[in-house]
Amino acid sequence: MRLLFIRFSAIGDIVLASPALRCAKQQIPGVEIHFLTKKSMKAVSEANPYVDRFHYFDKDLSATIQELKACKFDYIIDLHKNLRTLRIRLALGVPYLSYNKLSVEKFLLTKFQVNRMADRHISMRSVDTLAPLGVSYDGKGLDYFVPSEVIQPVFFPEGYVALVIGASYATKKLPLESLKVLCSQIPHPIVLVGGKEEVADGEALALLDPTRIVNTCGAYSLHESALIVSKARLVISHDTGMLYIACAFEKNVIAIWGATSPALQVEPFMPDDLKAQVFQSIVPDLTCQPCSNFGTKTCPKGHFSCMKQQDLPEIARQVEQMW
C-alpha cells in the first residue's frame, strides 16, 4: 500500500501530525509512506525515518500534481484540508481520508467564545484519520528528528532554561518588558531561542546579565535550535513550533498562552507514560480568549490582557519546581 500524507505547514502543525506517520508506518504491513509539504518546511520532517519519500511544493502546484500522479497512490491522507489539498485530491482521483479540522467549532470559539470543540487533541484526530486502515494511536507522543550531521551547540554544561521568545504573531508573544521581568526572576542560566525576527529582543534580554543569558536568536538553524532545546533542563515557550519540538524531546515545558489557548486542542502533547512536568500559563477568566486560531498582529480588543496580565512570578516558581 502506498500512502500520500499532506501537511503543508507550519512547523508546529507538522510536528503535531508526526504520530500519524509513525503509527501508519509501524502498523500497516509493507506500507510505503510519502509526505508532501511546502519546500520552506523541508527541514521539519526531512530526517523522519517513517517517511519513504518526500515531495515538496514551492510555487507550481500543477508540476507537483504531475509528480504525484506518477506515484499511483492507494490513498491520500489529507492532514491539512484546504483548497490546495482539495485540488490535489481531485487531480489524483484516488480514495482519500481527511482529518476532522473542526473549522466551524474553531470559528464559534474564537469569534463568539462558544465552545463546541471535541475533546480530542489535534494529534489524536490526525491518527484517527487512519482508523479505516486499522491504525490507532500508540501512546508514544510526538516525533522530531535531527539529521546526524548537525552539530550540537553547547551552552552551560551545568544546565539551562531554554526560553523560546518568538512566535508567528505578536499576540502570541510576551511583550519585551514582560520578558525582561521574567528573565530577572529566573536565577538560572537562560538560553534564548528564536528566529531572525527576535534578534533585537534577544540582544536586549541578554544585556540584563551577559554572563547568565545567551542570545541564540537568528544565529542557528531550526535543527540546531531544536538541539539547544533538547539539552535544556526545561523549556519555556509561547504557542509556537518549538513548544511541540520540546514535547517531542520529552522536556519539562511551560507553555505561555495569549491569543490562542489549549481550548483549541493544541496543548503540549506528551507520551502516555511520561513523567515530565507541563505547566500551562494562561490568564484566567478572560472572556475574549482565544481570539484566533493562529494569532494576530494586534489585540482585537486593544488591551492585550492575555499577555500583559501573565503571572510572571508563578512562571518563575514553576521553573524552580521543574529545575
From TrEMBL:
EC number from the UniProt entry: 2.4.-.-
Pfam families: Glyco_transf_9
Gene3D superfamilies: Glycogen Phosphorylase B
Source species, domain of life: Bacteria
SUPFAM superfamilies: UDP-Glycosyltransferase/glycogen phosphorylase
Transmembrane helix in keyword set: no
Record-level Gene Ontology MF annotations: glycosyltransferase activity
Keyword Hydrolase annotated: no
CDD domains from the UniProt entry: GT9_LPS_heptosyltransferase
Keywords: Glycosyltransferase, Transferase
Name of the protein in question: Glycosyltransferase family 9 protein
Organism from which the protein derives: Aquirufa novilacunae
Lineage summary: Bacteria, Pseudomonadati, Bacteroidota, Cytophagia, Cytophagales
